[in-house]
Amino acid sequence: MTRYETILKSFEEMEVFAATIAQLVTAPCYIALQGDLGAGKTTFARGFLQALGYKGNVKSPTYTILEPYQIDSLTVNHFDLYRMSDPDELELIGAHEMFSENCINLIEWPEQGEGWLPTMDLWIEITHLKQGRHVCVKASSVKGEKILQSLQK
Ligand SMILES: Nc1ncnc2c1ncn2[C@@H]1O[C@H](COP(=O)(O)OP(=O)(O)OP(=O)(O)O)[C@@H](O)[C@H]1O
Ligand SMILES: [Mg+2]
Description:
The chain is an alpha/beta fold. It has helices spanning 11-24, 41-51, 88-92, 95-98, 142-152, and strands at 3-8, 29-34, 66-71, 74-80, 103-108, 122-128, 133-139. A seven-stranded mixed sheet has the order 1-7-6-2-5-4-3. Strand 3 and strand 4 (74-80) form a beta hairpin.
C-alpha cells in the first residue's frame, strides 16, 4: 500500500484522525504536515498532542518556528517553518539538538527546510474541500510504512 486517504468533515474529525496517528507513532519519528494556509496542520498537531496527554494550550509556532512539548519522558517538537527564510535559522534556534531519539517531530511547511531536515517517516498532505478536508498520508521509511499499514486496518 502506498497511501492512505480520507475525508475529514470538521476540525473535530481532524483531531480524532491526529489522535489515531498519535497512538501508532513511537519516537524517534518525523511527520511532515503539508497543505495551504489554513489547511488544518496546527489542528492536527493539537489533536496529536492532546491524544498523548498534553493538557495545555497548543498554539501555532509561526513566530517562534519551534515549540517543544514535554509529555513525561517524551518530547514532541512542533515546527512551523513558514516564516523561515534560510534553513540556517533552524541551526540558530538549536533545532539539531531537538532531533534526538526520544522526540516526535511534527513539521509544518517542511518544504522550507528542504536539504536540512532529516528523512521524514510520514507525509500528511491536507487539501481544502468545499466542506472539510481531504487528507493523504504517505510513508517514506520502514517505520512510516508500518504506521500506514496500521491505519488501513
Ligand atoms: N477537517 C477540517 N474541516 C473543516 N475545518 C477544519 C478542518 N481541519 C481544520 N479546520 C479549521 O481550519 C482552520 C485553520 O486550521 P489550522 O490553523 O490548523 O491551519 P494550518 O494548516 O496550521 O494553517 P497555517 O499554514 O496558517 O499554519 C481552523 O479554523 C480549523 O478549525
Ligand atoms: Mg499552522
